[in-house]
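Section 5.1 Outputs to date
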Amino acid sequence: MLSGVRIVELEALGPAPFASMLLADLGADVITVHRKTAPPISETAQGKLLDRGKRSIVLDLKASADVVLLKRLLKTVDGLIEGFRPGVMERL
């Protein structure tokens, strides 16, 4: 149904991983950006469920080299899902 649609999800809590899981279930190519500094959510049973059908990459968004990689990745996708608190994405 969503074949050919590419989405990047920045790892977060709440509805963002669930929404991207549903998009992946519908056929979208979802790439999850996991944090280097925090223990991955994907190690929990809930995280494994929410990561189904997604590809993943580990980046440190406070490192300039990783930010360059993320910006290059974002140029190739159709959408971005992030679930940070207000202002966090702007700071990154």
